[in-house]
Design brief:
Blueprint: E1 8-13, H1 15-32, E2 38-44, H2 48-55, E3 63-73, E4 78-86, E5 96-104, H3 108-118, E6 124-132, E7 145-149, E8 155-156, E9 172-175, H4 177-187, E10 192-195
Parallel strand pairs: 2-3, 2-5, 5-6, 6-7
Antiparallel strand pairs: 1-9, 3-4, 3-10, 8-9
Helix pairs in contact: 1-2
The structure holds inosinic acid and magnesium ion.
């Protein structure tokens, strides 16, 4: 393959559709947080392209912070265990926190983060995700702001990766089984620590 985009078998969400939906989400968030100063907490690294476009569509003052973690388990059996590798810079006690994710799949990552951040006693905490893949949900997550619901397919682009690649694609695409299938067989049952 000459370019990474050759590995994409289908564009699930085109760039134009992302732009339009992100603008709508910005409007929803602007309305919801009009009377307070939200702290937007991005979950690295999947949130990066989404969050940078989203904040430009929010017409009230806000603050930004980021958190990074690794998840334990195997590709076929996530354990729900995780470890924060870069914590927030801010104290969130009494703050109105909006957790910003690129994708929610099993819900284990968001569930872990919600438990961890709730223990710090924010005034409120809500979840915003660009993509919601409910088919594999194990942990129920209350999603306040959702970009798109997608089917159970492995997608990359617009911040989302496969083995740290493809994040720079400007659309959400489905990766060929030639790429993911090989990796799934290799990874089956083998415990890993996966950065996000
Ligand atoms: P969880 O299963 O909801 O905990 O999602 C864990 C993480 O897996 C997400 O934050 C993403 O980093 C990654 N992930 C899940 N589904 C996909 C996908 O379709 N493409 C890329 N990354 C994914
Ligand atoms: Mg990833």
């Amino acid at each position: 393959m000459n370019s990474k985009a050759d590995d994409i078998i289908e564009i699930l969400i085109a760039q134009e559709a992302i732009v339009q939906r992100v603008a709508e989400l910005g409007g929803e968030i602007t309305a919801a947080y009009r009377d307070c100063l939200p702290l937007m907490v991005g979950v690295l690294k999947g949130c990066t392209l989404f969050m940078s476009d989203l904040v430009k569509q929010i017409e009230i003052p806000l603050e930004m912070d980021f958190i990074s973690l690794v998840s334990y388990g195997s590709m076929t059996r996530p354990s729900g265990a995780a470890r924060i590798t870069k914590d927030l810079d801010c104290v969130i006690e009494g703050r109105d926190v909006l957790l910003v994710e690129g994708i929610i799949d099993t819900g284990m990552t968001a569930g872990y983060l919600l438990r961890n951040l709730e223990a710090r006693q924010p005034r409120s905490i809500r979840v915003c995700t660009l993509l919601d893949k409910p088919a594999r949900r194990i942990v129920k997550i209350p999603v306040a702001f959702r970009g798109f619901e997608i089917p159970d397919r492995f997608v990359v682009g617009y911040g989302l990766d496969f083995r740290q690649l493809y994040r720079n694609l400007p659309y959400i695409g489905v990766l060929s089984d030639k790429i993911t299938g090989l990796d799934r067989r290799r990874a089956t049952g083998i415990p890993t620590a996966t950065p996000h």
